[in-house]
TrEMBL record:
<keyword id="KW-0206">Cytoskeleton</keyword>
<keyword id="KW-0282">Flagellum</keyword>
<dbReference type="InterPro" id="IPR001611">
    <property type="entry name" value="Leu-rich_rpt"/>
</dbReference>
<protein>
    <recommendedName>
        <fullName>Dynein regulatory complex subunit 3</fullName>
    </recommendedName>
</protein>
<keyword id="KW-0677">Repeat</keyword>
<feature type="coiled-coil region">
    <location>
        <begin position="305"/>
        <end position="354"/>
    </location>
</feature>
<keyword id="KW-0966">Cell projection</keyword>
<dbReference type="InterPro" id="IPR032675">
    <property type="entry name" value="LRR_dom_sf"/>
</dbReference>
<comment type="similarity">
    <text>Belongs to the DRC3 family.</text>
</comment>
<dbReference type="GO" id="GO:0005929">
    <property type="term" value="C:cilium"/>
</dbReference>
<dbReference type="InterPro" id="IPR050576">
    <property type="entry name" value="Cilia_flagella_integrity"/>
</dbReference>
<keyword id="KW-0963">Cytoplasm</keyword>
<keyword id="KW-0433">Leucine-rich repeat</keyword>
<keyword id="KW-0969">Cilium</keyword>
<dbReference type="Pfam" id="PF14580">
    <property type="entry name" value="LRR_9"/>
</dbReference>
<keyword id="KW-0175">Coiled coil</keyword>
Length: 505
């Protein structure tokens, strides 16, 4: 017997709305505050309420007003007269989406829904087969409902769906047999080959893009963003435009320059990346040491508080149960508790002061070591090497062009002839190119040095600021605790002196 999954409540009960596009307002309408009370489903009103319950997630929207809807796993937008699929960006965790009975003509706008498992778009106006092929991108899609769309009337429609949607288990609530899938794939063999080739190329491009992005992030973290583009930037400057007409005789010199430049650049990249990792390791060691120290201190403070809370609970309980022989004895016990609270506060403050001093000792030891990791000198040395390579290139370029002056061929380009016949113009071109290259190199150097200083300063200042805030927060916690207990003691004292007034309050 063919098994069938349960249908959505939204597809069983029409729920008309004025919305025509999917937006935050429409998604909000699918979230409500109150749980619908349990019913036995015997009367029509109860059935309607149960249907609405299926359409709504029970959640207070006010709690998530300023958050994205990325947490959503189910979304039912059936019977809403929607004409276009849009507004679903960011719903990365959505697994179940129903657009049943709308006015949608094309399946689109769902690129972020990579976790989608169940999709219903039956009773719409889907016409093109391309909409079905669009669903192929969802790797976990196991259930699709498509009936009552114009595209369903297309010849071999069902076979196309089975062939293109790889992990489909149910189509229009019917379990798909493996034999059906194999038959469908055979019928659409050529189309699938073409699609597979495109998907492989796309996957390869995606992988390359991801690698490039990771490389860019690594370089940015190491303060060398854009370093791989520096050589091309130099030779794309305006001063090199005229020099390019001599490529027929200078290409080997430029290539030689590029090789030397790349060698120095790659060495520099490794230095900076290693320095970045060393900085990270130093920071991790610092935070680990601080956390361990803080854990030990917190344990000590918790023990003190726990012992005090036990005594406080016992005293206040005895007072309220009137176990003492006199009122004076009860008040005396509360006075003792109050004094013990003051002693506890002093001890907690002392623990925190010692903790803060220990923290600062660790931080003061960390800062000199971290500052030694400043890469300013590495940056300066690297760019100094680049400038030397540029000087050598400039000399070789001038010599090569001077050689051309003495061997101007008759078929030489007229513009080239004019420059070669004017040595002053030739020297000016070479000099302008050199100056432009050095200016670009110098600007990059200054930028990296400033970035390095800013980053070092930020890390140092943030480390200090974090400790100041931690200390301030801890002191505030201690005094808040003390004030709360003192209020409790005063309330208990009030109970002893005038119980009638205490109960009136």
């Amino acid at each position: 017997m063919t098994s069938m999954p349960a249908t959505d409540g939204g597809e069983e009960n029409e729920f008309h709305a004025k919305y025509t596009v999917i937006n935050d307002q429409l998604i909000r309408s699918c979230i409500q505050l109150k749980q619908i009370e349990h019913d036995d489903g015997t009367d029509q009103e109860s059935k309607t309420m149960r249907a609405l319950k299926l359409k709504r997630d029970t959640m207070d929207f006010a709690l998530i007003e300023h958050l994205s809807f990325s947490f959503k796993k189910k979304l039912d937008l059936s019977f809403n007269k929607i004409t276009k699929i849009e507004g679903l960006k960011g719903l990365k965790n959505l697994k179940y989406l129903s657009l049943f009975s709308n006015d949608i003509e094309k399946i689109e706008g769902m690129e972020d829904l990579m976790e989608l498992k169940s999709f219903s778009i039956a009773k719409n106006k889907i016409k093109e087969k391309s909409s079905i092929q669009y669903l192929r991108m969802f790797p976990r899609l196991g259930m699709v409902t498509l009936y009552d769309n114009p595209v369903c009337e297309e010849r071999d429609f069902r076979n196309m769906v089975l062939a293109f949607l790889r992990n489909l288990k149910f189509l229009d609530y019917r379990l798909i047999e493996e034999e059906e899938v194999q038959t469908a794939k055979e019928r659409f063999h050529n189309e699938l080959l073409k699609v597979s080739d495109n998907e492989e190329q796309y996957a390869q491009n995606q992988e390359e893009d991801e690698k490039k992005l990771l490389e860019e992030q690594l370089l940015a973290k190491a303060n060398i963003a854009g370093i791989d583009d520096l050589f091309d930037e130099m030779f794309e400057c305006e001063a090199d435009e005229t020099i390019k007409i001599f490529n027929y005789c200078t290409a080997d010199i430029i290539e030689k320059y590029r090789t030397k430049f790349t060698d120095k650049k790659d060495e520099f990249k490794m230095e900076m990346i290693n320095s970045s990792r060393n900085k990270d390791n130093e920071l991790e060691e610092l935070y680990s040491t601080l956390q361990k120290s803080q854990y030990e201190t917190n344990s000590s403070s918790k023990t003190l508080i726990k012992e005090f809370e036990k005594k406080k609970k016992e005293i206040i309980s005895n007072v309220k149960e009137m176990t003492a022989e006199s009122e004076e004895e009860d008040l005396h016990q509360l006075d003792l508790l109050d004094r013990e609270l003051d002693i506890l506060a002093e001890k907690l403050i002392e623990v925190e002061v010692n903790q803060s001093e220990a923290f600062w000792e660790v931080i003061e030891e960390f800062l000199p070591n971290y500052r030694e990791m400043d890469c300013t000198s590495k940056i300066q040395n690297f760019f100094k090497k680049l400038k030397k390579i540029e000087d050598k290139y400039s000399i070789e370029l001038k010599d090569r062009l001077m050689d051309q002056v003495t061997t101007i061929a008759e078929d030489t380009n007229e513009k080239v002839k004019d420059i070669l016949e004017d040595k002053d113009q030739l020297f000016t071109l070479v000099q302008r190119s050199k100056e432009a290259h050095k200016e670009i190199i110098g600007q990059k150097e200054l930028k990296l040095i400033q970035n390095e200083k800013d980053r070092m300063l930020f890390t140092v200042e943030k480390t200090k600021k974090d400790e100041h805030e931690r200390n301030r927060s801890r002191i505030s916690e201690i005094w808040t605790f003390v004030e709360r207990v003192k209020e409790e003691i005063e309330e208990t004292r009030k109970f002893i002196i005038s119980p009638e007034e205490y109960y009136e309050d």
